[in-house]
Amino acid sequence: MLVLLLAVPFLGSLASAFILNTTSRQLPVFLAGVVALSSVGLSALAYPYVTDGNVLRFHAEWLPQFGLDFSLRMDGFAWIFSMLVTSIGFLVVLYARYYMGDDDPIPRFFSFLLAFMGAMLGILISGNIILLSIFWELTSIFSFLLISYWHSSAAARDGARMALTVTGIGGFCLLIGMLLLGHIVGSYDLDTILASGDAIRNHPLYLPTLVFILLGALTKSAQFPFHFWLPNAMAAPTPVSAFLHSATMVKAGVFLLVRFWPVLSGTYEWFFLVGLAGMLTLLLGAFFAMFQRDLKGLLAYSTISHLGLITTLLSLGSPLSTVAAIFHMLNHATFKASLFMAAGIIDHETGTRDMQKLSGLFRFLPATATLAMVASAAMAGVPLLNGFLSKEMFFAEAVETHADSVLDRILPYVATLAGAFSVTYSLRFIHTVFFGPPPVDLPKPHPHEPPRWMRFPIEILVVVCLIVGIVPALSIGPFLETAVASVLGARTPDYSLSIWHGFNVPLIMSLVALVGGTLLYMALRRYLATSEDGPPYFRRLRGQRIFERVLVTVSWRWARLAESRLGTRNLQPQLRWIVAIGFAAGLLPLYLAGFERRPIVFSQIDPAFVLIWMIGMALAIGAAVYAKYHRLAALVMLGGVGLVVCLTFVWLSAPDLAITQLLVEIVTTVLILLGLRWLPKRNPDLGDVMTLRSRFRRFRDLLLAVACGVGMTVVAFTVMTIPVPDAIATYFLENAYAQGGGRNVVNVILVDFRGFDTLGEIVVLGIVGLTVYALLRRFRPAPDSMEMPEQQQIQNRFDEEQPERSPGDMVRDYLLVPSVLMQWMFPVILMFAVYLFIRGHDMPGGGFSAGLTLSIAFLLQYLAGGTRWAEDRIRILPLRWMGAGILTATATGAGAWLLGYPFLTSHFRYLELPLIGKIPAATALLFDLGVFALVVGSTVLILVALAHQSIRINRLRAIEAARREEA
Questions:
Q1: Whether the bond into 493 is cis, omega within 30 of 0
Q2: What is the end-to-end Cα distance of the chain in Å, rounded?
Q3: How many C-beta atoms surround the C-beta of residue 577 within 10 A?
Q4: Which of 115, 139, 521, 937 is the most buried (most CB within 10 A)?
Q5: 34-93 pLDDT, tens per residue?
């Protein structure tokens, strides 16, 4: 059930993405509505499994030896939040159906929205804290896409970038905190961590762990001093704002604080850090909200303030304050979602959100105005509404003594003042927008009620506010008790949800806040009607401006300074640093481990082997000498070095490595040869001025190269000549057939024992292919490289002098026999690739070698007939090969989960085939198929990028020739 709950939104997102080209608005909306409603149903069905402190779990092993498993868990707290996310998500989908314009790409919107819902559900039900961190970052990514949905707007782009930067950095800090937490406990399992509170609080790493986790939570929930990103996210469509502010993005931070409250709270550090951030956010958010002209700006700052209220409650460390925090999280979600939707309707019908232009809308939007007034009253904490109950609980906890500190003593006054501010901005929202004279000069001069179903989500949420406020014990009581018990366990206190607790201090604080807020609004009313946007004394202190200055300083000024001091555009210094750091990285472990130096014995070395290596060294030196002015000769000698390495593998009985080395040498040599055509010419006549500094630089580089080469030689020779007891190779040799079903140990290691490493490597290979392709698409060769090579010019002149010939005939004559041979070799090489692939699990070969072989077949066709000839006859589509390879390899690993085994666990057996008999078959063959497809796709993609340079240059030459003729 949990897997289905998590998968449904992501599957719906993919489905919506695949219908991006549809012109229908109904199909994406219907799909998103069905997905959201299905998620609500799945969440509701899980309730019987989470009552009475029970936990619904799903567990699939991923990397069990590292404690990294795909683990899902749902307790009462996760359940009530899942219901909140899915139900409000469904209402937002319904609301967005009428809010979004005809020109908006609806499928893309709902694809992002459903993916965001799935990421939020992942945070709620993750049973592994590393998995939780992954979903945490996914919410940042999808919120970035949602906020920048109207990407033509600069405000949307800036707000999305700011949100991603702040929450992304916070997510990185959270990951560090989770790693520290796992180190302290010895497990990343959430259940294990929640049972280790004393060990965590008493550990020396408690404070850094707490700081990193709080950085993640406070940035996500827009707590001071990270609150500035949330108001700038208001450039998103209103349905996105309603979803982000009520149940998802900003609630993730306080959800995390509640989730880890049992193990991190109860210390002075927790009280001080969380309490200080919460109180400042509570007060400043409410103060800033009063002076906003934008409706959504007012609601954004009020969200910041209410999140500060929840954070303050959690800082107090008492079980009752945690109950109040959970209760207010639920209440705030209902009235804030309805208020954002009401603000969206006002904007939709009037064309503006500026409160200095809005007035008297009650006569035009009576139903919407009534709903918005009830929701605003709930936000202000008016009795008989849900916001009043949780705010009363907050006041009750504020007057209690929790710690002997200034923060604890001033909390009642801060709470009352913030409550008065909330009444003020709620009154401003109601009175300014809905009462007073009719509005004038509106962008849309004739506002009216929205469609019935656009207002329906607000009606549902307002009814919830009323029911919870009037009969809380009967409505929300059982569900709240389930959520609280799952967090507090045996520490769950007795609490009451009665709407009347007598005439006590919290009630007096509520009355003071209501009266004081009303009087404050009356005093500020005229000022607010004409004032500038923003609070007095703080108008110039804009978070966006500070953020942009910090961003420019870090990403541009400091980067330029670092580049000027440490960076260079020359390749040689970069290689020097890479080689030097690699040498140090290899030398340091050997030095620290006390590497035993042994005498090198040459008695068992074959003279023929020495001769081969002397040839290889001579070729390597020759390649280095001729690389500057004679690139072709250097490339040929470099290929000779590769062949020497290949012969070395053969000599040392490593046929798999020899085949791979030979194939890699062929492919890279041809691709580099194609690339050499477009490099700028080098003139040896210019010469180099040999100064003392240049001589020193060359001598230094020579010493570094000799040190690295000799060091690697010594290490490699020593490792290969001394006996190594209990080597891991013994394990592979003994278990390759028993556990991997193959006799080719190298291939079994790659696709079975170290399959996860191979999966990462092919992903990197795919990224490299895409990067090379992107760079070559933007590449423009030097002007002196755009001319035809001299030999080709001579051949063309000969063809032009003969009346029966045309330019290019001589080249075709020269290549006639080779091109025919290369074309005939295509099916032969194709069958050889299949042969290498099939035999790879038991004999030398495999997916990587087969992929390179097939790439050579394609490469020969490009060489034989040219780019246009090859692409007219062979439809390769390398990107699809790459995608199919990644999906096949990943799906093979995920398939093991269906049988309850860890990711990428392989299975093998013998299959009985008619007329053939028994043949071995292993699931690792499917994984190898993914490797094969990705290698083919990546190699051919680079080939295509290089080959299309010729087409582009010919086109440019034709344009230049046409211009010369016109001139």
A1: no
A2: 74
A3: 12
A4: 937
A5: 999 999 999 999 999 999 889 999 988 777 777 778 899 999 999 999 999 999 999 999
Q: What are phi and psi of 503, to 5 degrees?
A: -85, 100
Amino acid at 469: G
Q: Position 569: which residue type?
A: R
* Tokens at 950, concatenated: 């010729």
Residue 734 token pair: 């003994």
pLDDT score of 720 more than 80: no
Instruction: Confirm if 365 and 349 have CB atoms less than 8 A apart.
Output: yes
> Does pLDDT of 329 surpass 70?
yes
**Structure letter (DSSP) for residue 685:** T
Q: Which residue has the tokens 């556990």?
A: 739
> What does pLDDT average to over the chain?
86
CA distance 837 to 850: 5
Instruction: Classify the C-alpha dihedral 191-195-200-203 as positive or negative.
Output: negative
DSSP readout, 856-911? HHHHHHHHHH-HHHHHHH----HHHHHHHHHHHHHHHHHHHHHTT--TT---EEEE
* Closest by Cα among 759, 691, 742 to 904: 759
From CA 481, how far away is CA 494, in angstroms rounded? Answer: 10
d(CA 299, CA 105): 27
Using alpha carbons, select from 443, 223, 247 the residue that is nearest to residue 341: 247
Q: How many other C-beta atoms are found inside a 10 Å radius of the C-beta of residue 184?
A: 20
> pTM value?
0.78
* CB atoms closer than 10 angstroms to residue 53: 13
Q: Quick: pLDDT tens for 734-789.
A: 888 888 788 888 888 888 888 888 999 999 999 999 998 888 877 777 666 666 66
Is 740 within 8 Å of 864 (Cβ atoms)? no
Q: How far is CA 655 from the centre of its chain?
A: 40
In the 8-state DSSP scheme, what is residue 844? S
Question: Where do we find the tokens 């349905």?
Answer: 239
pLDDT, one tens digit per residue, over 887-934 is 999 888 888 877 777 788 888 777 777 766 666 778 888 899 999 999
Whole-angstrom Cα distance, residue 890 to residue 25?
A: 34
Going from the C-alpha of 581 to that of each of 140, 442, 586, 701, 960, the distances in angstroms are 35, 65, 9, 14, 48
Q: Please, are residues 322 and 488 in contact by the beta-carbon 8 Å criterion?
A: yes
DSSP β-ladder status, 68-74 and 56-63:
antiparallel
- Kindly give the residue spans of alpha helices, DSSP state H, lying in 435-542: 452-470, 472-475, 477-488, 505-530
Q: Which residue has the tokens 């072989």?
A: 853
Which residue(s) pair with 327 in the sheet?
none
Residues near 658 by Cβ (< 8 Å), separated by ≥ 6?
646, 647, 649, 650, 844
* Radius of gyration of the chain, Cα coordinates, nearest whole angstrom: 35
Helix or strand run (H / E) with residue 614: helix 607-626
Report the distance separating Cα 375 and Cα 543, nearest Å: 29
User: CB neighbours of 838 closer than 8 A, spacing ≥ 6?
Assistant: 845
How far CA 150 is from CA of 14, 21, 158, 233, 522, in Å, comes to 20, 18, 11, 12, 38
Contact 894, 721 (CB under 8 A): no
Whether the predicted pLDDT of 21 surpasses 60 = no
**Which pLDDT value is given to residue 954?**
67
Q: Where are the alpha helices (DSSP H) in 316-405?
A: 319-350, 366-380, 386-398
Taking 3-state DSSP, the helix, strand and coil percentages for the chain, each rounded to the nearest 5, stand at 75, 5, 25
Residue 350 scores a pLDDT above 80: yes
1-8 average pLDDT score: 91
Nearest alpha-carbon partner for 169 in 558, 555, 567: 555
CA 819 to chain CA centroid, Å, is 47
CA 949 remoteness from chain centre: 33
